[in-house]
Amino acid sequence: MNVAKFHNVINRISEEAETIEIVPKLKELQSALKQTTGDSGQGVLLAFREKYSDISRLLEDCRINKVTPTEMKILEQMNAGKYVGRGLLNKITSIVEDNKITPANASQEMAKLIEEVEKFYETVRSIDDAFEYLNIERDVLRDKEIEVGIAIPHENEEHNITGLYTELQEIDFLFKRLNELTGEPVVSPGIRTLNASDFQVYVESVPNVAECMLTSIEKIVALYEENLEIKKLKQGLEEKSIPEEAIIIVDGYVKNHIEKGLEDIASTLIEEHGKGMDDSRKNELKTALIKSLGYIADKLNRGSSFEISYGVPEEPKGLDVSEEDLQFILKEYNSRMEALNKLNERGRELSLLPVSNEPVLEIESKETEEEESSATALEDTAPKDKAPKDKAPEDTAAEAASQEAKAPGQTAPGQTAPGHTAPGHTAPGHTAPGQAAPGQAAPGQAAPGQAAPRQAAPGHMAPGNTAQGQAVPGQVVPGNKAPADIAKENTDTGNTDKDS
């Protein structure tokens, strides 16, 4: 869980609880409910219904109901769903509905719920205050900021640097292609947040690119849902013992359906955004887009989720303007909020795929080096500004050594100064140790026209040779002493060998 995103969720819960005064209103509802236990008159019932209607409207309209999928997951990890927004409303409704005949039981259950809710909000406020005191930042999307989030479960990918690097390459390739298509600079997208719980990356985007992403994913989700229905039909055919030939036809249709669907999406994107682009580049870009769309489809197919979030402006307050200008500003604000709320709703729904126990789309995920090379080739054709590449540490060291070698009077490592012979090499006119001069035979080999001396098999001595450490008659092996020398040493020191 990302701390900055967690702090933002905590802050929103705390602020909203104060704004709508949820705890006081719950107590008012519980009081009205308690009164129904002793008096079932119309006035008492009407008062309870009014309180219930008010709190239902407040909880239904809570901003916390419109959190991103990532924030919803944080709420689930906090076990906070039953204390906020629609979750709390469902709990209240359940208490009322389950105890229609016994209002006293409903009142007791409501009292327990209020106690839990109070404790929850006190804890939330304490955490929010502590985070503010410790200057822990909040991850807040400001007006005109856009964030695209991609979450990939650990079980679907390598949980190491190589796996992360591969995913980031794919995401980078996707955004660069969409940037080029929409006329934006072909640059790597900025990263807002990177998490390791599930592999989660949140990148910056711009309106046109985000719209392309949104439309593309919506269409891929539609393909997913269509294929899910087809797979259900296929399962029904198999259960009814339909001939295998018919099943093969269905399988072929399913595979072609997704391939053609991705191609159609790419063609639509090119048609809508590729105006003014030359035909050859359009074809290259279409190929690249099909690859990237396949990546999105493959991720969705294996349980990953995408979300797109738009920052919203702050509500105009305390403006020193005329009433006419204020009304115009508020109208503009409400119009923008309506459009952004629709976009955010679409962005949240991207993660709401139907559940399936197995992959639905017939997609071969990119795994081979050959496909990696193809992707690199496509990227290299994209127009971009040339900039000096960052050098790896080992390249920098090699360059420094090369520069040092060029200094007058100095020799670079691994090179030989003029007039000297490098180790392991032989100067002209000299013979290397163990080698024969021209016209002579190397030791142990015969000159042309002569027989080679007899050689011994491994572990045996050739005739006339001695084993290592033994002396040839009349010679002393280096490191051994002749008998006469030993006798002389013993005499000089006064020692004699008693056994000799």
Q: How would you write the strand order of the largest sheet?
A: 2-3-1-4
Q: Poorly predicted ranges (pLDDT <50, ≥5 residues)?
A: 365-377, 385-500
- Number of extended strands: 4
Quaternary state of this entry equals: single chain
Overall 3D shape? globular
Q: How much strand content do the residues show?
A: 5-15%
Determine the fraction of residues in helical runs and give it as a percent range: 55-70%
* Domains, number: 2
**Averaged pLDDT, please?**
74
Which radius of gyration do the C-alpha atoms yield? 40 Å
Helices, by number, come to: 14
Q: What structural category arises from helix and sheet content?
A: mainly alpha
| Main pleated-sheet profile | 4 strands, antiparallel
SSE pattern = HHHHHHEHEEHHHEHHHH
**Termini, distance in Å?**
87 Å
Ordered list of secondary-structure elements with their pairings:
Elements: H1 3-20, H2 22-35, H3 42-60, H4 69-77, H5 85-98, H6 103-133, E1 146-152, H7 161-181, E2 191-195, E3 199-205, H8 207-239, H9 244-273, H10 279-301, E4 305-310, H11 323-349, H12 369-380, H13 393-405, H14 483-493
Antiparallel strand pairs: 1-3, 1-4, 2-3
